[in-house]
Specification:
188 residues, mainly beta, six-stranded mixed sheet, three-stranded antiparallel sheet, 13 strands, globular
């Protein structure tokens, strides 16, 4: 299927919707196709407050604030605020488990990627922080504080929500394909 000009790609340089009304999307790893029935902007979505003791890790923090309603796909990013400061406090590392508590994202053979205070500044629009969340599939963060002081903070995301309807097209024919939870890249 040819992609219309108004379809952006996931992780694009601009924070724009990856989809438009009428576009098709394949969600991986389920390999299911949907069409976009409606689109809504999400100006700011703030997570719960996290208090991480010095030199400690909060394991399995469920991030319910990013869950979508039934049939909703959420596309969000974690941009740095204007001026001084960072979206993620200095000395904090966030590991993402999407699709269950034991479903680590950002894995390669011998290491695991994470978000920290530098990550939102990579690229022009924090594209390295982009997440796609379908409905209320499990989303957990492990949050590590590497400093000698307790840190309390929230995370402020922004993005888009898409109301999806099942589509009979093959996933390979979709306008856009997005990963909504961990998928093994071995054997692809």
């Amino acid at each position: 299927m040819s992609t219309p000009d108004r379809v952006n790609r996931p992780y694009n340089d601009d924070l724009e919707p990856a989809l438009y009304v009428g576009a098709t999307v394949a969600l991986q790893p389920e390999e299911e196709s949907y069409y976009v029935n409606a689109l809504e902007v999400l100006p700011t979505v703030e997570t719960q407050e996290f208090t991480v003791p010095a030199n400690s890790t909060l394991d399995e923090q469920e991030i319910r604030s990013l869950y979508g309603q039934s049939g909703v796909l959420v596309q969000v990013r974690l941009p740095d605020p204007d001026g001084e400061g960072s979206a993620i406090p200095e000395g904090v590392r966030v590991e993402v488990n999407q699709g269950g508590e034991e479903s680590p994202r950002f894995n390669i053979k011998n290491s695991r990627g994470f978000l920290d205070s530098d990550t939102p500044s990579y690229g022009d629009a924090a594209q390295q922080t982009e997440l796609y969340q379908y409905e209320d599939e499990d989303l957990f963060f492990d949050i590590e504080n590497t400093t000698a002081e307790e840190i309390t903070f929230t995370l402020k995301y922004t993005g888009w929500a898409y109301d999806l309807r099942p589509d009979d097209s093959r996933p390979t024919d979709a306008d856009v394909v997005v990963l909504t939870e961990r998928k093994s890249l071995r054997g692809l």
